[in-house]
Amino acid sequence: MGHKLLLVEDDEATAAYIVKGMSEEGFTVDRADNGRDGLFLASDGSYDAIVLDRMLPGMDGMAVLGALRAARIETPVIILSALGTPDDRVGGLTSGADDYLVKPFAFAELLARIRLLLRKRGAAEGAVTKLNSGDLEMDLLSRRVKRGARVIDLQPREFRLLEYFLRHPDQVITRTMLLEGVWDYHFDPGTNVIDLARSVTARFVIVAFLVQLTVTGGILLFVQQSSQRALAAEQKTLVTELRDDLVSAWRAGGDEGLRRIIDARLEQAHASPPVILLATARQDPIRGNLGDWPTVIPARTDWQAIELYRTGSDRPELMGVSSTTLPNGELLLAGHVISSSVRLARVNEEAITAALVIGVIFALLSALLIGRVLSNQIQGVVGTAREVGEGRLGRRVPIGGSGDAFDALGQAVNAMLDRIEALVSQLRMMTDGLAHDLRSPVHPDQGVARARDPRDRGRRPRWRRWNASRARRTTLLGMLSTALLISRAEAGIGRDRFVDTDIAGLLEDLAEVYGPLAEDRGFEIAVEAEPGLQVALHRELVGQALGNLIENATKYAEGGHRITVRAAREGGGVALSVADDGPGIPEERRAEALSRFGRLDPARHVTGSGLGLSLVEAVARLHQGSLALEDAGPGLRAVIRF
C-alpha cells in the first residue's frame, strides 16, 4: 500500500506487535517510545496516520495531540489506550483525535480503523467488489467464486482464506496476517499463537503426550508380540504332540497300529483340522488326507508353515506341519490347519491398532488437560501479580491445600507479598512518624534562630538555648543515621563484612561499654555466654543492635535492677538475648513495639525515636534471622535468633 504510519507507544510488546503486523500489511512504520520524540516526528506532517498511546513518558499523549492540533497539523490520529471509560473516550475525541481504540484490541480492528481514516482522508483506493487472478473471479457482493464458467462452492472460512490471498497478490502471506485476517485471533501483547510450540506449557504438553504415547504404544506392542508368540507356540505344540503321538502309535502297533490312529484322528472333528500323510521312502502316499508329499517339505523338519490342498478341498489352506522319518524308512507328515489362528492374529492386530489410535487420542487429550491445569495454576499467580502491580497489595495467590509444588510456589509468592506489604506499611508509618518526631527537635530551633529577646543579652542564657538546640540537632542526626542503617541492613548491605566473632568476648565488651550507663540508672549487667561460641556476623551492627536493647532496658524497665545479656546455641543456630526484670510489655502490644517509629509512650515523655527495635530487627534479617519479644518472668526478653 505504501502508506506511512507513525506509532507512538512506550510498551515494547505492544509496539513490536503493531509494527510487525502493519509492516506485513505494506505500511512503512516509524516508532517513538515517548511523547516528546513522537511530537517531533509528527510535526513535519508527512505521515498518513498516527497511532498514539495516551499514557507516555516525557509528554502525555493528550498533550502531544493538543500540540499537533494547535500547530494545525491535521494528520488523522487514533488513540490507543487502556483507559476505556466513556469519559476517557469522549475526552480523547473532543481533544482532536479521529478515533479511539481501547486496549486490549484486535489487530484486525486496528487495521480496519486505520484504513477507514485513510479512506476519509482520500489516501486509499475506492471500494473493491470483485477480485481476480487469471480466470479466477471472486464477487464479494454475491459471495460467488468462478473459474472460467465453472462456479466453485466454498465454505465461509475457505472464502475468507481465498479472499485474503487475492487481496495480497505477489506477497508472502505471514502468520500474523492469516491469524488476524482469517482465523480472528485477537491481539494480546503477551501471546503469540503461532509461537505456541516455543512456550514452556506447550513443550510440557508435547513431552507429556510423547511420554504417554510411548508408554501406551510400548504396552500395546508388548501385548501384540506376546500374543503372537503365545499363539505360535500353541500351534507348534499341537503339531509336535500330533507327530509324537503318531510315532508312538507306530512303535506300539507297527504299520497297522499307525494306520488305525491316522484314520481315527482324521475322523475326529477339530477347530483346527489335522493334516496327516504317511508315505513311502520315495514319497508315494500310503495313508492320510494329502494327495502328494509336498516337494518343499524335507524328510525331517520341526515346523514349517505352508499352503496345501487337503483331500476333497477345492482351495488351499494355511497349515503348520512337521515331518519325520520312521525307522522302517517311511515318511510321516503331521500338522494342523492354522487359517483360523491366523485370522485371530489379524483381528488381534486390528484391535491393538484401534487401541493405539484411541490411546493416541486420550494421550493428547490428557496432555492438553494437564497443560490447561498448569496454565490455570500459573494464571492464579499471574492474576495476583497483576492486581498487586495495580496497587491492591492485599491480594494473595490462592492456595489449593494439596501441598504440591504449586502450593509451595503460592506460599513463597505470598510470603514475598507479605513482606512487600509490610515494607510499604512501614514506609507509610515512617512518613507519619517523621512528620511528628522530626518536627519536635527542629521546630524549637526555628524559634531559637528567630528569637530576639532584649533581656537575653548575657552570654549564659543564649548559650543554654544554643546547647539545647545542638542537642536537638544531635537527636535529629541520630534518627537519620539510624534510619540510614536500617535501610542499608534491609537492603542486605554489609554481608561482605561478616567475620568470625567470639560471642562471649563481644558481650563482655558491650557490658564494659554500657556498664557505667546502666549503673547510673540503677542497673547491673550480667553476661551469660557459652565458651567457644564463634559466629560469622557483622560485629559493629550486632554490637549496636545489642547496645540498643541494653539502652532500652535501662530506659523502660522501671523498677528493675538487673539486665542479663545471654548467648547460647539453639537448634542449629544461635540466640542472643537481652532480658530485664522490669514490668515488661503486654503480649498484645509487642507487635506495636516492633513497628517502625513504634512508641508505647503515647505522650512520648521518654526521649527516643522509635527506631531502636526496628534497627535490631533489620540487623537480625541481615543475618537471615529474626527478632522476638518474649516474657522474661518478670520483665521482657528480646531475642535475636540466627
UniProtKB/TrEMBL annotation:
Reaction catalysed?
ATP + protein L-histidine = ADP + protein N-phospho-L-histidine
Q: Which GO terms describe its biological process?
A: regulation of DNA-templated transcription
Top-level taxonomic group: Eukaryota
Q: Which residues carry this modification: 4-aspartylphosphate?
A: 53
List the Gene Ontology MF annotations in alphabetical order: DNA binding; phosphorelay sensor kinase activity
Q: Which residues bind DNA?
A: 128-224
Q: Which Pfam families match?
A: HAMP, HATPase_c, Response_reg, Trans_reg_C
| Sorted UniProt keywords | DNA-binding, Kinase, Membrane, Phosphoprotein, Transferase, Transmembrane, Transmembrane helix
Domain Response regulatory, first and last residues per copy: 4-118
**Coiled coil region boundaries:** none
Q: Where is the Histidine kinase domain?
A: 433-642
GO cellular component annotations of the record: membrane
- UniProt EC number: 2.7.13.3
Q: What segment(s) does the record annotate as region Disordered?
A: 441-465
* Residues in OmpR/PhoB-type domain copies: 128-224
Q: Which PANTHER family match?
A: HYBRID SIGNAL TRANSDUCTION HISTIDINE KINASE C (PTHR43547:SF2), TWO-COMPONENT HISTIDINE KINASE (PTHR43547)
Q: What is this protein called?
A: histidine kinase
Q: Which organism is it from?
A: Globodera pallida (Potato cyst nematode worm)
